[in-house]
Structures are given as C-alpha cells and as structure tokens.
Amino acid sequence: MTLEIRLFPCLNDNYGFLVRDTATGTVATVDTPDAAAILAELERSGWGRLDLILNTHWHPDHTQGNAVLQAETGCEIVGPEEVRKAAPLDRVVRGGDTVMLGETVLEVSDAPGHTLGHIVYRAPSDGQAFVGDVLFTLGCGRLFEGTPDQMWDSLRTLAAWPDETTVWCAHEYTAANARFALSLDDRPEMRARAAEIMAMRERGQPTVPTTIGSEKAFNPFLRAADAADFAARRAAKDGFNG
Length: 242
Fold this sequence. Notes:
By secondary structure, this protein is α/β, with parallel strands linked by helices. The chain contains 8 helices and 14 strands. The strands form 3 sheets. Strands 1-2-3-4-5-6 form a 6-stranded mixed beta sheet, with helices on one face. The protein has a 6-stranded mixed beta sheet with strand order 7-8-9-10-13-14. A two-stranded antiparallel ribbon has the order 11-12. A hairpin with a 4-residue loop joins strand 9 (119-123) and strand 10 (128-130). Helix 4 packs across helix 8 (227-238) and helix 5 (174-184) packs antiparallel against helix 6. The radius of gyration is 17 Å and the shape is globular.
C-alpha cells in the first residue's frame, strides 16, 4: 500500500494536504482551511474525486471548508466530536479508532493540548502521519484549551513513533520556531539546522514535512526534560520576540 500526498499553501500560513491511496484511488483531504484552494489542487491533481475529510480539531482554519467541500463532492467528514462546534461532521473518531483510506489503515490517536479533542492520524504501513497543530517543525501548538501536562503527553505519544515517520504539520511557522530553538540550543548541529531552514524559506520552499527523528534531535519541546521543563519552554515561546 502506498500513499500519494500533495502539499499546498492555504490562507496565510496553513498547508493543505490531499492524500491518495494508490491501490484504490480513494482521496482524502486532511483538514479544510480553504475549500477553493483544495478544489483547485484536486483539479490539478487529476485524481477526480474526494472521498473523505479528515479533521484533526475544531478550529476554523481546519474546518471552515467542510460544508462547501461536502456539497461539491459528496465526501464523508470524519473527525473528533469537537468539530461539531464549528462545522459539519458525519463520523466521530477518537484515540484507538482506525479510518480506512481505501486499503490504507489510518490509526487515530488522541493528542489534546492545543484543543481538548485534538486527534492525529498515522498510516504505520506507509510511515506517514498528519498531526494538525500538535507538532510543528521545530515547534508545537499553543495551549489554547489544554494543560502543559496534556500537551507533553501528546508530544510523547508522537515521539514514540518510529524515527523515520514522515510528519505533515499544518502550518509554516518554522523560521520563527528556529529562532526560538537557537535561544535555547547553541549546538553546532542546531545552528546548521537553523541555517538550512532559513535558506529553504528564502527560496520559498516549505519546511514541511519533517520526521520524528529530526524533531527529537532539534525540536526544543520534544527535547524538554519533563512536563515542567516543557511548560517553561512553552511559556517562554509564547513571550518570545526574537
């Protein structure tokens, strides 16, 4: 089983993802930041169908295209219960559930912290994961609803995945994240990673996807010693102006 993934910019700093199971041609979008951009990318892809919306959490920049996309394509909307606060939802999933994208099994894990009901999707057979606003390249989501302990536990869940897991994050925040990481970590390899990130952004290249191994090596939040250290780092990032 193989997934094809198309990444494209949406809104100011979101990414959209179209995901296709090559065995069956089944297509999903992970979150719906901009229905028009998703439909345009679907047209460019030539894939000819949209079967599923896979929401990670309820925030409007992840759900505001649900209704339009369902009206245009007849797709099913899957996600956590909290999505109903903002948008249509057909099927509720939670940690421990699975979603079939054609022949590809997507495992659902609870990942609260950014919101209380945030979930993530991982295809172990393909080594791909879609993490919404839990983990970013060199960063993590703000704690809008959850506690530091909840977010720390969520990050540890992701860190337990194989290092080679490819991680598709929902925003392009990496340049700012790199500046914060450098304020805590002056290792030569960290400086080299930050320089690589800055060069990519200067060329207009996305810094997504990343890998679990890379984030364990460089992400200041995954490198925290414990939940208290994580909480201190998250608070410092919230006030960081570098």
